[in-house]
């Protein structure tokens, strides 16, 4: 990684610390108080040893000093516990905000972007890489302040006692962070490569796991297992590289710290032998000065040791921030909608498109130019081969994909209004039902305004009532992760019932009957046929046999609308729709 990139990432990481400024300040304050107690306990211990050894002072007279020393130990332990608690709060505050930014960014980019990368890479980004920032804010940043404050306080204490010993520590101190920084540059680069490898490995493994049955059918299990083993071994090697650099950083610190303490010890040893008669202020080198300095010398380097221990947290955070910052800033376009007006609620949407081109976030044209009108209350079925651009058009209508040309909702240009206010007026049912809440009831009642009578009606209409009596706890049944307690058809019926509980301005249906058995398809399409008559409806489908009663059918091919008309009109006219019918009939045979 280039040095300029590392500096940019480090600046960004420090900027995020403003999200938890008060916790950082409190952690630094507790650390400073702990440093004062370190000096106090060292002073008390040196005084006690000096009194006991040099002056033969009776132990009974030194009892208050012992009590004060024990009190310092107890209070220091309490402060250390408080620092850990505050550090955790600090890291959590930053992680929560950054995770919300990532999720908001994903919401803005929409399904097209999410589906463009393996699910494992998104999981690594949202979970692991943000979690790997925790120690940077919880421990490393507060320790940077203490690595300056504590040695400074110790030098202020030692210089009036013995300037030579203090000078030795002062000269040795800068060498440690310099060499640690040199090692840390390599560690940050290694961490960045490690995170990239982890994201690839996660996506690779999850994709193979999802296609396990297909791999078995084609006898590719052994080959894919070897591929995963190879990728895992490469990831292990990268991880060991990171650990080697982390251990090297600790070794550099321990070497200079041990060398400096040894020099201080040698200085006092020769001073007591009368060979080095300097460093004092005319009163000689006392036993108290030696005890105090040798007790504080390890404490002088301890903050730097702790910083070295946490230095891998910085390298780890820089590596994680590389991918995180790239994602938050990639194809950065104005996404703030706070200044945009809210689109007023509509009873039924009229949609007009003129030379509409749907684009990916990188500017690639996915569909268009399209010109069409969907009248208020009209029911339109959108058909075509896979890859024709149907789903891209749906995502543009939901505000997830940018577009050029004109796309008006009841005469208002969509891009000029707050996208979220428009999405509140939509209902969407896709081919993969998503039930994020814990229980069946909570998944249905995402709209809290629905009453019991309305809920009962939609359960009957969507066919949910047919199987709900077989569930152990009825509507309060826990559906499990990814609705594992329901079949795909049952989960789709629940998704349809949820959509029916609302009365939107536009109902969008994206292959709602795909992958369903005949019974589930019958229930789902019957319910959607009734629901589609309440508002404007646009349905993407490959199922042609239930479209006779729809108002119009649009046919897409290679991103263009090539045919529009009723079922009868398109069935009688040679063209793409007739070819789709023949293809479907051949598949059924």
Helix content: 55-70%
Number of contiguous helices: 20
| Class computed from helices, strands and strand pairing | alpha/beta
- How would you describe the shape? elongated
Please mark out the parts with pLDDT under 50 across 5 or more consecutive residues, or reply none: 332-338
Mean pLDDT reading: 80
- DSSP summary, beta strand count: 10
Instruction: Please describe the biggest sheet, giving its number of strands, its sense, and whether it closes into a barrel.
Output: 6 strands, mixed
H and E string: HHHHHHHHHHHEEEHEEHEHHHHEHEEEHH
How far do the termini sit from each other? 59 Å
From the alpha carbons, calculate the radius of gyration and give it in angstroms.
34 Å
**Strand adjacency order, main sheet:** 6-7-8-3-9-10
Strand content: 5-15%
Structural overview:
- The chain is an alpha/beta fold and 589 residues long.
- Helix content is 62%, strand content 10%.
- It is built from 20 helices and ten strands.
- The strands form two sheets. The chain has a six-stranded mixed beta sheet with strand order 6-7-8-3-9-10, with helices on both faces.
- Strand 7 (506-510), helix 18 and strand 8 form a beta-alpha-beta unit.
- Helix 3 (63-109) runs antiparallel to helix 5.
List the helices and strands and how they pair.
Layout (H helix, E strand, L loop, with lengths): L2 H14 L4 H33 L9 H47 L1 H5 L3 H13 L2 H25 L4 H10 L2 H36 L1 H6 L3 H52 L14 H43 L21 E9 L5 E10 L4 E5 L6 H8 L5 E7 L2 E2 L5 H5 L2 E4 L10 H5 L7 H11 L2 H4 L19 H13 L5 E5 L7 H14 L4 E5 L11 E6 L2 E6 L1 H6 L3 H13 L1
Parallel strand pairs: 3-8, 3-9, 6-7, 7-8
Antiparallel strand pairs: 1-2, 1-4, 4-5, 9-10
């Amino acid at each position: 990684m280039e040095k300029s990139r590392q500096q940019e990432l480090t600046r960004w990481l420090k900027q995020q610390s403003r999200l938890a400024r008060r916790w950082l300040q409190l952690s630094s304050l507790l650390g400073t108080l702990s440093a004062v107690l370190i000096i106090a306990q060292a002073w008390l211990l040196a005084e006690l040893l000096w009194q006991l050894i040099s002056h033969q002072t009776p132990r009974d007279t030194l009892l208050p000093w012992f009590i004060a020393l024990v009190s310092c130990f107890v209070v220091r332990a309490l402060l250390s516990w408080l620092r850990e608690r505050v550090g955790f709060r600090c890291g959590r505050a930053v992680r929560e905000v950054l995770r919300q930014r990532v999720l908001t960014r994903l919401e803005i980019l929409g399904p097209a972007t999410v589906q463009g990368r393996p699910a494992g890479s998104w999981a690594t980004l949202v979970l692991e890489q943000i979690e790997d920032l925790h120690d940077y804010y919880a421990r490393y940043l507060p320790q940077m302040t203490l690595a300056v404050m504590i040695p400074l306080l110790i030098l202020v204490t030692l210089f009036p006692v013995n300037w030579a010993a203090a000078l030795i520590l002062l000269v040795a101190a800068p060498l440690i962070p310099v060499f640690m920084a040199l090692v840390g540059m390599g560690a940050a680069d290694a961490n960045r490569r490690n995170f990239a490898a982890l994201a690839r490995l996660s996506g690779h493994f999850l994709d193979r796991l999802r296609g396990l049955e297909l791999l078995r059918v084609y006898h590719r299990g052994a080959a894919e297992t070897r591929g995963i083993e190879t990728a895992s071994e490469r990831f292990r090697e990268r991880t060991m590289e990171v650990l080697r650099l982390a251990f090297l950083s600790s070794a550099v610190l321990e070497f200079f710290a041990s060398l400096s303490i040894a020099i201080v010890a040698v200085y006092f040893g020769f001073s007591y032998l009368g060979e080095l008669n300097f460093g004092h202020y005319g009163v000689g080198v006392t036993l108290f000065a030696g005890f105090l300095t040798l007790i504080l010398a390890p404490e002088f380097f301890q903050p730097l040791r702790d910083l070295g221990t946490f230095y891998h947290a910085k390298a780890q955070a820089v590596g994680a921030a590389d991918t995180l910052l790239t994602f938050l800033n990639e194809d950065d376009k104005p996404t703030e909608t706070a200044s945009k007006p809210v689109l007023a609620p509509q009873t039924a949407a009229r949609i007009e498109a003129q030379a509409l081109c749907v684009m990916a976030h990188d500017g690639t044209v996915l569909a268009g130019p399209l010109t069409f009108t969907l009248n208020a209350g009209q029911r339109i079925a959108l058909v075509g081969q896979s890859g024709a651009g149907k789903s891209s058009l749906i995502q543009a209508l939901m505000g997830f994909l940018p577009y050029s040309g004109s796309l008006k909702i009841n005469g208002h240009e969509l891009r000029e209004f707050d996208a979220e206010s428009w999405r509140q007026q939509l209902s969407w049912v896709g081919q993969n039902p998503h039930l994020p809440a814990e229980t069946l009831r909570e998944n249905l009642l995402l709209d809290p305004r629905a009453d019991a009578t309305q809920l009962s009606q939609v359960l009957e209409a969507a066919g949910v009532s047919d199987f709900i009596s077989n569930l152990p706890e009825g509507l309060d049944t826990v559906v499990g992760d990814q609705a594992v307690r329901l079949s795909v058809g049952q989960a789709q019926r629940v998704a349809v019932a949820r959509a029916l509980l609302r009365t939107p301005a536009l109902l969008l249906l994206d292959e709602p009957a795909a992958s369903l058995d005949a019974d589930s398809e019958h229930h789902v399409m019957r319910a959607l046929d009734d629901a589609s008559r309440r508002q404007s409806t646009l349905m993407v489908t490959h199922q042609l046999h239930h479209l006779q009663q729809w108002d119009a059918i649009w046919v897409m091919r290679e991103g263009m609308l090539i045919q529009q008309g009723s079922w009868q009109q398109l069935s009688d006219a040679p063209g793409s729709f007739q070819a789709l019918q023949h293809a479907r009939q051949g598949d059924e045979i």
